[in-house]
Amino acid sequence: MGSKLEISEPDGADMAKWEKYYARNDEFIDPEYRMEIRSKLVRGWDADDTENYIYVYSTKNKPLISLIKRRIETIRDEYERQFPPTAQVEAVSTVRICKDAQEYFAYGGPRGSGGYWNWTTEELVFFDYEDDDGAGSGTADTKVVLYHEAFHQYIYYSVGQLAPHTWFNEGYGDYFSGAG
Predict the structure, then answer these.
(1) How many angstroms separate the CA atoms of 95 and 72, rounded?
(2) Closest Cα partner for 154 from 28, 111, 146?
(3) Which of 21, 53, 56, 104 is 20 to 30 A from 119, alpha carbon to alpha carbon?
(4) Would you list the DSSP string of 93-151?
């Protein structure tokens, strides 16, 4: 039995504002997809863009969001260098950052995981690891999961929306998770 039910409707973002924004900023691929994502935002969630990604987040940790935006574009350059795509990747990659583990699991995160790439919804999902222990591991843990899962997302799009064999996908995901 559930102990809490939360029903949220999209905030009804001003799409005319976003149409103008994306028309002025042609470096953002697939503005229609980005506006669709923004139109579905519920209260407490925000979105941000970089060239290849749209970030949907509920964490209030703005320095972490800025760090993720810089780092994921940089690591993507390395993915592309080591694994050139079969054709230009035109898909916008969605990155969902939940505010904490509880929200991540409520969103559908598998127990025992810290993040996942969901190819059916085309979202990379993880959470803001808080630095509860005072050892400074929170942001480091977030980056480890980000780099691992972002590799799965990139490789899926780079080979024509197909996941490679598990040994390759997980092995290189782990390889890149040490990039932090």
Answers:
(1) 10
(2) 146
(3) 21
(4) EEEEEESSHHHHHHHTPPTT-SEEEETTTTEEEEE----TTSSSHHHHHHHHHHHHHHH
Residue type, 47: A
Structure tokens at 176: 């890149």
The per-residue pLDDT of the chain, averaged, comes to 87
Tokens (6 digits) for 159: 């080979």
Q: Is residue 62 within 8 Å of 30, Cβ to Cβ?
A: no
Pair of tokens at residue 47: 């979105």
Structure tokens at 108: 């559908």
What's the mean pLDDT in 134-155?
77
Mean pLDDT across 40-49: 94
List the Cα angle 57/58/59 in 5-degree steps: 95
Residue corresponding to tokens 């054709």: 87
Q: Are the beta carbons of 63 and 102 closer than 8 angstroms?
A: no
Half-sphere exposure of 105 (CA within 13 A, CB side): 6
* Torsion angle (degrees, nearest 10) of CA 20, 26, 32, 35: -50
What is the pTM (predicted TM-score) of this model? 0.85
What does DSSP say about strands 115-118 and 46-49: parallel, antiparallel, or unpaired?
A: unpaired
At 137 the pLDDT is 46
